[in-house]
Design brief:
Elements: H1 3-15, H2 19-36, H3 39-55, H4 59-77, H5 84-107, H6 111-123, H7 132-152, H8 156-170, H9 178-197, H10 201-217, H11 221-237, H12 241-258, H13 261-277, H14 281-298, H15 301-318, H16 321-336, H17 343-363, H18 368-388, H19 396-421, H20 424-436, E1 439-441, H21 465-469, E2 483-485, E3 490-491, H22 501-511, E4 522-523
Parallel strand pairs: 3-4
Antiparallel strand pairs: 1-2
């Protein structure tokens, strides 16, 4: 085979997730390339090696490849290119450098630098470009990498414009080339996961099935397994545990064989959840510990934070409240050290700690009073803050998704702790709030504060990422804008205080959520 044919074969091996063989082949080509003194072929080797190292999270390897490529290009750009082939080489591998820069920054969570490199890659175009197809591929692939990295950091709303650009490319029939199929599989899998994580389960399924079918047609076993894993997460979210179990068990052999630590961890997470669902707590703890170990090896604090909370449920079910508290405290420390933490993550953490206190109270009724009170102090303000987001969503489907996937469970927990504590006054206030929550208001003179629900589902000046994630793709209708608004204070008795006033104040103090509107209070007695 010629060197060019071997380079093409290495590309096929990498797309089939056989990175070890691809790497060995590329390294074996280096002496031959040095012998023929072809810098363009050496640049191709480093570009492909950089992509392999990026996929395998060997980021030092990516950095080394970038250094070698930049050094080589710097030699040629020091003086104007003497002929067309040199200019062609510079243009081609300058773009490959920008692609690797984008992917590396995204992988490190440096989303601002990734966005700048992506814009530089997009802007590196010429009018007469015989490399246009490759350039288009690099741009779309880089957008996928950036969008997936944003979702990994819970920054789903920032990924929306990127996913929309990706969908514009992969929605068509494609040209059946290796690169076109790779984009469909990568983009369809990534967008399917985005849809699952944001409650768009019906939208996720066709993308995951289409990506899986294309991967199977190419005999890409790992890619096929990754679509099965995402379908398993969708089945779990929909409450279909048997299907989730079947899919994750089908996916695991190929994922384990290719040793992608993040995907392996996610498999172990669902193995653990399935064990919890049947009461096999020892088995669940072991499986979740495997997930935690892999995420610690990857250095992903947000994922470690989540798995600690999940493992604390096993401690709670075992009655080991001290161990559960220790895990929750460690999870809080990780969240506090995470530079992009959000109020919603803290609200969920407080709600979880309230659930722990509630479990302690139920386990020891003789000393339950204080534990129930502390649980209510945590769970009710968190539930009110999270439910307040729903008032900002103009789109009915978005409100339904937020209520179903985010606020309903927390509100149910708030009701449960009030009921179990025997605090009938608090329970009646929660019922009053639940019956009356949310009012329709038509703001005067407001025509541009809200945009298409795909990009702005809350007032622009207080756009909240998680509220935006819950938005759909439809546009608001013409005419006066109508939105949901927070309730004014509710007073149940002429001589009583507004309902839940202290808990609403806590929701604002802890999470910055204005649960009560500044309107005149409503009287709820006859």
């Amino acid at each position: 085979m010629t060197i060019e044919q071997d380079l093409d074969r290495a590309r096929h091996l990498a797309f089939a997730a056989d990175e070890g063989a691809a790497k060995d082949l590329l390294l074996s080509l280096m002496p031959r390339i040095e012998q023929v003194d072809r810098d363009d072929l050496m640049l191709e080797v480093y570009a492909q090696l950089g992509e392999i190292y990026l996929i395998r999270t060997a980021y030092d390897g990516v950095t080394e490849c970038l250094t070698r490529m930049r050094d080589c290009l710097r030699h040629y750009t020091a003086t104007p290119p003497a002929d067309a082939p040199v200019g062609h080489m510079i243009r081609r591998y300058r773009r490959r450098v920008l692609f690797l820069q984008t992917g590396l920054a995204a992988a490190h969570g440096d989303h601002e630098s990734a966005a700048l490199s992506l814009q530089a890659l997009i802007g590196d175009a010429t009018t007469a470009d015989d490399l246009r197809d490759e350039h288009d591929y690099l741009i779309t692939h880089a957008r996928i990498l950036c969008a997936v990295a944003l979702c990994d950091d819970d920054l789903h709303v920032q990924s929306l414009p990127l996913w929309q650009e990706v969908l514009d490319v992969i929605s068509g029939p494609g040209d059946a080339t290796l690169f076109s199929d790779a984009l469909l599989v990568l983009g369809g899998t990534g967008y399917g996961r985005f849809c699952v994580e944001t409650g768009r389960l019906t939208e996720a399924e066709p993308w995951l099935r289409r990506a899986g079918a294309r991967a199977r047609a190419r005999s890409w076993r790992l890619a096929t397994a990754r679509t099965q894993l995402e379908r398993a997460t969708a089945a779990w979210a929909a409450g279909n545990r048997p299907l989730a179990q079947d899919l994750v068990h089908e996916a695991y052999p190929a994922i384990a064989e290719h040793a992608r630590a993040h995907d392996v961890s996610r498999c172990w997470l669902y193995f653990g959840l399935l064990s919890i669902s049947v009461g096999a707590y020892d088995d669940a703890d072991e499986r979740l510990s495997h997930a935690e170990r892999h995420w610690r090896e990857l250095g992903r604090p947000l994922h470690i934070h989540r798995i600690l909370l999940q493992r604390s449920w096993v401690d709670i079910f075992r009655g080991d409240f001290a161990a559960a508290t220790e895990r929750v405290n460690e999870a809080r420390e990780l969240l506090e050290g995470w530079p992009r933490h959000s109020w919603l993550q803290y609200a969920r953490l407080d709600d979880h700690l309230g659930s722990l206190l509630r479990a302690e109270a139920l386990a020891d009724p003789a000393n339950a009073g204080d534990a129930f009170a502390r649980a209510a102090e945590l769970k009710i303000p968190a539930a009110l803050a999270v439910d307040s987001v729903r008032y900002t969503l103009a789109d009915a489907d978005a409100r339904m998704r937020w209520a179903t996937h985010v606020s309903a469970r927390m509100l149910a927990g708030a009701f449960a702790v009030a009921w179990e504590s025997g605090d009938t006054e608090l329970l009646s206030e929660l019922i009053e709030y639940h019956c009356a929550r949310g009012t329709f208001i038509a703001p005067e003179g407001e025509t541009a504060a809200w945009a298409d629900t795909a990009t702005a589902a809350v007032p622009v000046d207080e756009a909240d990422e998680y509220a935006l994630v819950a938005s759909g793709h439809g546009a608001l209708g013409a005419g006066p804008l109508t939105r949901l608004g927070a309730l004014p204070p509710l007073r149940m008795e002429p001589d009583g205080a507004p309902v839940l006033s202290r808990y609403r104040e806590l929701a604002f103090a802890r999470y910055g959520r204005q649960v009560t509107a500044g309107d005149d209070e409503w009287s709820t007695w006859p």
